[in-house]
Amino acid sequence: MSENPGTSLRPPLHPVPAPPDPRPGRRELPDTDLYPIEPFRLVETRFTPSRIPQTETLFALSNGYMGIRGAFEEATPVYRPGCYLNGFYETWPIVYGEEAYGYAKNGQTAVAVPDASIIRLFIDDEPMRLDYVHLLEFERILDQRSATLTREVLFETHDGRRIGMRSIRMVSLEHRHMALFRYEITALDAHASLGISSELSFHRRGRPRVKDDPRVGPQFAENALVPGARDTEGSRVIRDYETKRSGLRMACGIDHYVETVNDTDLRPEIDDGTARVMIAVDASPGVPIRIDKYAGYHYSAEAPADDLRFRVRATLDTGLHEGFDQIREAQRRSVNSFWRAADVEVEGDDEVQHGLRFNLFQVMQAASRAEGRGIPAKGLTGEGYEGHCFWDADVYVTPVLIYTQPHLARNLLRFRYNMLEEARERARELGHAGVLFPWRTIDGHEASAHWAAGTAQYHINADIVYALRKYTQVTGDTDFMFRYGAEILVETARLWVDLGFFSDRHGGQFAINKVTGPDEYTTVVENNAFTNLMAKENLLYAAQVIDWLREEHPEEYRVLARRTGFDVGEVDEWVEAGHKMYVPYDERAGVHLQDDDFLQLEPWDFAGTPPDKYPLLLHYHPLTIYRHQVIKQADVVMAVFLLGHHFSIEEKRRVFDYYDPLTTMDSSLSACVQSIVANEVGHHDKADEYFWDNLVVDLADSAGNVKDGAHLAAAAGSWMAMVYGYAGMQDFDARLRFSPRLNERWKRLKFPLLLRDRRLVVDIEQEQTSYTVEYGGKLPISHDGEPLVVTPGEVITRPNRRVVGDDEESS
Amino acid sequence: MSENPGTSLRPPLHPVPAPPDPRPGRRELPDTDLYPIEPFRLVETRFTPSRIPQTETLFALSNGYMGIRGAFEEATPVYRPGCYLNGFYETWPIVYGEEAYGYAKNGQTAVAVPDASIIRLFIDDEPMRLDYVHLLEFERILDQRSATLTREVLFETHDGRRIGMRSIRMVSLEHRHMALFRYEITALDAHASLGISSELSFHRRGRPRVKDDPRVGPQFAENALVPGARDTEGSRVIRDYETKRSGLRMACGIDHYVETVNDTDLRPEIDDGTARVMIAVDASPGVPIRIDKYAGYHYSAEAPADDLRFRVRATLDTGLHEGFDQIREAQRRSVNSFWRAADVEVEGDDEVQHGLRFNLFQVMQAASRAEGRGIPAKGLTGEGYEGHCFWDADVYVTPVLIYTQPHLARNLLRFRYNMLEEARERARELGHAGVLFPWRTIDGHEASAHWAAGTAQYHINADIVYALRKYTQVTGDTDFMFRYGAEILVETARLWVDLGFFSDRHGGQFAINKVTGPDEYTTVVENNAFTNLMAKENLLYAAQVIDWLREEHPEEYRVLARRTGFDVGEVDEWVEAGHKMYVPYDERAGVHLQDDDFLQLEPWDFAGTPPDKYPLLLHYHPLTIYRHQVIKQADVVMAVFLLGHHFSIEEKRRVFDYYDPLTTMDSSLSACVQSIVANEVGHHDKADEYFWDNLVVDLADSAGNVKDGAHLAAAAGSWMAMVYGYAGMQDFDARLRFSPRLNERWKRLKFPLLLRDRRLVVDIEQEQTSYTVEYGGKLPISHDGEPLVVTPGEVITRPNRRVVGDDEESS
C-alpha cells in the first residue's frame, strides 16, 4: 500500500462480510453511464474529480519497461501521478524494532522518475485546470486495440473564450524506451495568448506521506534522485540522475515537433526538479496548434551517465525520424498481434467481455517489454507494494503468457534465473543448501521486512519451478531447460531436502516445519500442505529432468554437474524426500489439512464479525487471527488447483467445502482460484460469483485500493478462471483436457492457446465445443474424457457433457 | 543490549557449547589476584583499564530509585558511565518494517540523567587521568556491609609530585533521592595548584552509537533531555530538564561542604549539558582537602519544574544538615538490617560465599527504595534492555523478597497493580477480556517491538499471579488481597478464559493456541505446557480467592464485584477451564511436551555446532532455530519447578532428562532453575555445575555482557538455587518442607526466612539440619517428610536423609 511502503499484508479483495453470512451475488459494474460498457475501450465520459485516484491507475499506460499513471496533462488536480521504470528503485536500511540474525537488511522501493506526460497550459499566463475552467465537453478513452489514451476537452475560459484540446499518449511497444504525446489545441472563438509548458518533471506530491517514518521522508519524495548533467538544445532537453544508495543511473529527455501557422516561440528551461520546453503561441481563432512530444528513458547500474544521455538522444532521434503517426501504426499492429494470440471472446455478456479485455490488456501492458525485469504485483500502474515482485508473476501471470506469448513467459523465467546468485547467497545466510528465492524483491535480494509472512514463504521456490515446468511442458523449449531451467531445479531441490527431514513422528515421512503457506492468516506452521505438495513436485520434477538429461543429453548433463557441483547421489535424496513427503490429512474430516495444527485452532466467530471488521488484518492483531480457523486466501484450495492431478474430484470437493466458508477473500489472489475449483467440483453459483469478484477488482475498485495500482494477478486470474475454470482445462501432462461449461448468460466463449508451435482455438457454446488447430501439426487433446486428435484445418465439435454440480449435490 | 535498545532476544548466559558436548565443570573465578575472594567486599587491587566496561557495572551503586555506574570520578577513561532514575525514560515511535494491527506503538528507553559522581581534577590546569599519570597505588572497594564504594589512589605527576586521593560514594538507602560523595586529596611532597571540578553533567559517550538507527541518534545522546531553569548559589547548583516525548520532568542538584586549611576559591558554572562547582585550591604539601558533595534527584510526570527544584533543595539541605558521616552511619544500619534478614551463609567455600553475597547485594540495591517502580532486568546498573521490566522481577526477584523483605515484595506487586489500567487497555486493543500485562515495559505500556517473543508471552499474566499468590501465602497479607490482589486475579482469569477455548480436538479440554512460553527458541505455539499450567493455577487460584471472599469477607467481595463488574457465574467458567486445562504429554517419551508440536521438530545437530556458534540467536535465523528441538532456557523444567506440586519426582526427572540436553542456556534465566530441578531429581553434579554457572554470571562475566548491567534474575536465582535447591524447600501450600543436601565442599548453609511474622533460621550441615524460630509463634514445617513444629527459642535438629540421586540412578 502506498502510504506505507513496508506493508506486506496483502490488501483485501473486498470488505464484504465473510461466510456464513450470505454473500451477495453478481454485482453490477458501478456507474456504467460514466464508464460505459464497451468492447476494447475504457471510456470516461465526464470529468469526475472524485475518481482521480482510481483513474490514474485505470488509465495508466505501460509497456512493461516504463509506465505512466493516467494523470491529467496539467499535473493538477492529481492524486499520485508518476512515471516508473521497471527495476528502477532506491534502497534503504530496514529498521527493526528488534533485530535478529538473518533479517533482510535493505528495503527496496520503486521511485518515480521525471514524468514526460506533463503538458501544462497557460492562457494569458493563468494556469489552466480542469476543475477551474468551465468544462463544456470531456472524454477520456483508453483504447485497448491501439494502446493509446486519448483525451478530448472543450472548455470556456473565465472571460468566455472557448478552447478545444485533444491529446493522445502512448508508451511505445515497439520502442521500449519511448513514450509519445500528441497535444492539439485550438482557440475557437477569439485570439488567445497561450503558454504551453511541455515538461519532464517530478510531481509535487498530492498529499503528505506518513509521518514519523524515516524511510518515507525526503529521500522518497522528489529528491530520491540526485541530479546530474543537463543538455538543452532547441526543443530538446535531456538530463540524468542517480539514486543515492542503490547505485542506479538514469537519463531521460524530451523533444518536440510543433506544427502550426500561429506565431510560436520555443524556449528550453531546466532546474533540479523540472525540465521543460516552453512554447509560447499567439493563437488565432480557429487555427490549431499541434505538438508531438517524444520522451526517452534509459537506466543502468553500469553505464556512465553520458552514455545514458546518448541513448536518450538516440531514442528521441528515432521518434522524430519515424514520427508520431508511423509509431502509432506500429503500436496498433503490436497490440493486434497480442489480441490475436490472447483474446478471450465472450458472447452474450458485454460486461464480462469488457472486464476481461481490460484485464488482459493489463497483462499485456505489464509483460510486453519487461525483458529481463519481473512483473511487479501492480505492474507499472502504481506504487502499491513498492514495485515488488512476488509469486504473483510466477503462478498467476506466467501461465497466461505461456499459452499466449511464450517468449514473454521465457523472459520472466530468465528474470528468476538471473537472481540465482542472490538466492544462493540468501540460502547460505540462512544456513540452507541450494537457493532460496526472495519473497518480495525488485533486484533479487530479499526485501521483506516481515519474515513470518516473507522469508518463511519458502513455497516461492516451488512456485517458480511450477512456472518453469509448465513453460517447458507447453512450449517444449529444451534449450531453456539446458541453459537455465535445470540449474534452477537442482538448486531448489537442494533447498527442500535441506529444509525438511524424515520425521519419526510422522512414520519416517518427510516433514517441513516452520514455513508459511499462501494463506497469511496463519504463519510459521508445521507441514503446510500447499508447501509440502509443491515441494514434492519440485523434487520429483527435478529428479525426472536430471534423469532425462543424463540419459538423453549427456553433454548438457556434464555441463550442469560442473556448474552446480552436482553429485548423482543427490537425486536419490530428492526422490526419497519427494515420495515420502508428508501431507497432513484428517481422517475424521476427510480433508487435507492446511497444516498440522489447523484443525486445533478455534473456529472464527464469523457470525459475530461485522462487515466493517474486514479485512481482518486491519482490525485484529496477528495473534488473534493466527489463533483461529480463518483464511485470508486459497491455500489448500490453491494446491488442489495447481496440483489437481493429485486429488480426486471428491477430495477437491471436500477441500473446497471445508475451506471456502473459512476464507475471507481478504487477498485479491483468492477469488480466481476459488472460482476455478468451484467450477470443477460443480458449485457453479459460487464459481460465477467468484469469477465476477475477481473480474472487477480493478474496474469496480472492490478492494478499495485501485488507487495504488492494478491487481495484476487477478487480471491474469480472470484468464485462468475462463480457461481452467469454465473451459475446464487440465494440463498436468503434455495432453490438454477440456470439460467446458458456460455460465448460462453466455452464448460463446472462444480463445486461442499456443502450444508447441500449434495454435489451438477452443470455441465453446452452451451445448457444444469446437476445436480447431489453426497452424502447426496435429494435436491430441481430450474433451469431457473423450480423446481427440485435432488436425490443422479440421474443426472437431463435441457436445458438452459436464453435469451441473450443485444440482447434483443437492439432489 | 545497550547498542540496540530494541533487542529483546535475551543475552546468552555463556557461550559454551551446548550438550551433548561435555560441559566443563565448575570454573574458577577469574583473576582472583586482581579481585580477591572476600566476604562482603568486591575489591579491585590494581587499575585495570581493560575491565572498565565490567567494573562500571560491578561497582555500580543503587538504592532502587537511582543508580550510578561505577565509573571513575574523572569521567575518563570510561566505557558507558551514567546515572539512572528508576522509571525515568524517553519514548519513541517504534518503526516497523511492515506494520500490522495491534503492534506496540511506542518504545521506551531509560535515559541517563546528569551524573553527580563526576569530580574532575586539574593540576596546573592539566586534567588528571588515571591512565596518564604514574600510578603508585590504586584500590577500589565495594563494601557490601556499608553499601559504599571507596577508591584510594596514590599517583605521581609528570613532574614528579606525589598526590594522594581518596573518594567514598554512596547512594543513600535512607534518603531515597540523595547520593553522596566524599573526595579527599593531599599534595604530598610539594605545593600544587589544584582545580577540582565537581560536576553534575551528561557524559560525553565513550563510543558511538549504532548508525542508521533513527531511535538512537541525537535524541538518546545528551540532548534527550531539554534543559529548563537553573539555580546557582555559592557551592550549590540546581537545574531541571524535561524529556521531549514522554512528558517527564526531573530536577537535580549538588551542594558541597569543603574542609581544608588550604586557600580555596569556589565558583559555580552552568551550561546546557554541564553544571559544576569549580573549586580552586592552592594546596600546601601534606595539607589535605576534603570535599563532601551532596546530590539530589527528583522526577515526576505531574509536578512542575520549580517544585522539583524545590525538592532538590530540600534534599541538599537535609544532606548538609545531617552530614556525610551521619548518613554513612545510617547507610550501614540499613544494610545491616538487610543482611540480618537475607544473608545466606556458606561455610567451607569462600568463592561461593563471595559470589552469593555479591548477588544478594545486587538484589538489595535494585529493590530497596524502588517504591512504586519495578525492578528492571539490569536493575539500575546499566542500559541493557533499555531499563525494561520483564517477568524476571515477578518470578525470580519477588520470591526472594517475600521471604526476606516482604514490604519490598509488596511494593513490586503494587507496581503491577498500578499498571492494571494500561493492561486493561492493551487487552481491549487485542480483542481480549480482562487484562494483558506488558511483556516489557517501564511505564505499564507494552514496549516490545517483536510481538512473537513479546506480546505472545501471555504467561506474564500468570507469572504476576504466581508472585501474588506466593506473597499472600507466605505473608498472610489479606489486606493486600482485598485492596489489590483480588482485582488482579479477576482480570487475569478473564484473559485466560477469553484466550483459550474448549477444543474438540483435545476431547473438550481447554486449549490455548499461539502463545510463546519462556523459551524464546520456539514462539507462537499451540498449548505451551508452561503457559497452560500457569494459566490453570491462575484460574483456580482466582476462583478460590473469590469463593473465600464471598464466604468470609462479603463486604470486600461486594466492593470487588462493583469495581470489576464481576458476575459470580464467571467463576464457574474459570473453574471449568482450569480443571479441563489441556497439557500436552507424550506417552511414548513419557514427558510433558513443551508444546503440541515440539516433538515434531527436527533434532538440533549439537555435535555439528561449534562453540563459536553460541548463542544460537546471533548465528541462526529465527526460523532455523524454531524449526529444531533446541531450547534457549528452561520452559517445561521451569514449570516443574514453579508448579512442583503437580509433578511426581519421576515425572520431574524425565522432564529434566529430556529437556536438559536440548537446552543451550543461551539465557541467564535458565541455570538457576536447572540447578534447582537437578538437585531435586538427584543429578547433583549437574545441580552444582548450574549453580556455579548462575552464581558467577556477573562476577566472571561469563555471558560477556556484564558491561550492559548486572543480571538481576540470576542474582536472585542464586538465593533460589540455595533455598529451593540445596535446602530442598517446597512451599506450595502454607507449610514449608525441606529436604536439604549440601555440596560436599560446604560445611554449612544457613539462612533466615520470614513468614507470617516469624523468622525461621535454617542451619544445614552435611549430616544434619537445625531449625530455629527466632521470633513469632510456632511454625509447623517438615524435614525430609517428617512433620515438625518449631517453637520459638527451641532448636530442632534432624539428620539429612535425602539420598544422592545420581548414585541411586546409576546403581
Largest sheet of chain A: 9 strands, antiparallel
What is the terminal separation of chain A in angstroms? 46 Å
Which structural class do the helices and strands of chain A define?
Answer: alpha+beta
Q: Could you give the order of strands across the largest sheet of chain A?
A: 1-9-10-11-12-19-16-15-14
Number of helices of chain A: 19
Mean pLDDT of chain A: 92
Q: Which consecutive residue ranges of chain A, at least 5 long each, have pLDDT under 50?
A: 1-25, 206-219, 804-811
Q: Please tally the β strands of chain A and state the result.
A: 33
Most extensive protein-chain contact, per-chain counts: A-B, 61 and 61 residues
Radius of gyration of chain A: 27 Å
Q: What does the overall shape of chain A look like?
A: globular
Q: How much strand content do the residues of chain A show?
A: 15-25%
State the helical fraction of chain A: 25-40%
Q: What oligomeric state best describes the polypeptide chains here?
A: homodimer
Q: Can you walk through the features of this model?
A:
2 copies of one chain form a homodimer. With 811 residues, chain A is of the alpha+beta class. In chain A, 31% of the residues lie in helices and 24% in strands. The first copy, chain A, contains 19 helices and 33 strands. The radius of gyration of chain A is 27 Å and the shape is globular.
